[in-house]
Amino acid sequence: MDLVVTTVHKPPLSVIQMAKDMAAEMSIPFVPRDRHSLAAIREQYEVNELIVATADGPIAHSEAGEYFFHLSMAELRIKNLINGKHDHMVTAMGLKAGMSVLDCTLGLATDAVVASFVTGANGAITGLESSPVIALITRYGLQNFSVQSEADITSALRRITVDNVDYCQYLEFLPDNSFDIIYFDPMFRNPINKSSSLKPIRTLADMRPLTLEAIRQACRAAKQKVVVKEAAGSSEFARLGIVTTVGGKYSSIKYGIIDCMPEKMAGGGPPWNG
């Protein structure tokens, strides 16, 4: 793996141990920071990316910028829900307390956090992330990040399970009807905002487009729905055979919905067998 772990300058022992643990977990070298610059470490070890352990958690440094865990829009979306406002993802999924959700493209877990809040203590959210770096950073954030004065949001973070695995392999061996909802948020073919804070993730994330086979397996393993997030106006919905979408009139995001229940009730299969 083209990657090493180091620390900030003058790290406390706890941060050094964190860095060593992460290096062991990912089977990559731990490099003491000493007085070296990140550029010098990159050059010496001939790597393009580094994970830097800090008191606030790991940060991935790449040529595209820094990548670290943060709540993004999750906190605002949850507060909007508390205030009775609408969330298009929640509507698309038909989320209710106690439901189970498989997020096949976890990333920073923004959508998973919102889903975890809605499904509550009796719900179950599992997030799959194929990138070892993103999985490491997101898992650490979900386990350690706290929202002051918002215990319900912090609890929502802690309930999410993270698996570093390719969703294609995971879905293939998943039993029928394993989750109420299966969700995909693949990297958009054309970024909505090329200068956004998500730019660094594009060098780390799985850039493959969603396949018809993945949709077919998801429909088999989902009890109720498969939901796909895409840019409004994207041709991906048509390519994947998704005809039902929801989203704000002026929103740059749409959610494609596949209702898996009618096909199963009729004893037939979904229309993605070809």
TrEMBL record:
<dbReference type="Pfam" id="PF04445">
    <property type="entry name" value="SAM_MT"/>
</dbReference>
<keyword id="KW-0808">Transferase</keyword>
<keyword id="KW-0489">Methyltransferase</keyword>
<dbReference type="InterPro" id="IPR007536">
    <property type="entry name" value="16SrRNA_methylTrfase_J"/>
</dbReference>
<dbReference type="InterPro" id="IPR029063">
    <property type="entry name" value="SAM-dependent_MTases_sf"/>
</dbReference>
<dbReference type="GO" id="GO:0008990">
    <property type="term" value="F:rRNA (guanine-N2-)-methyltransferase activity"/>
</dbReference>
<protein>
    <submittedName>
        <fullName>Putative SAM-dependent methyltransferase</fullName>
    </submittedName>
</protein>
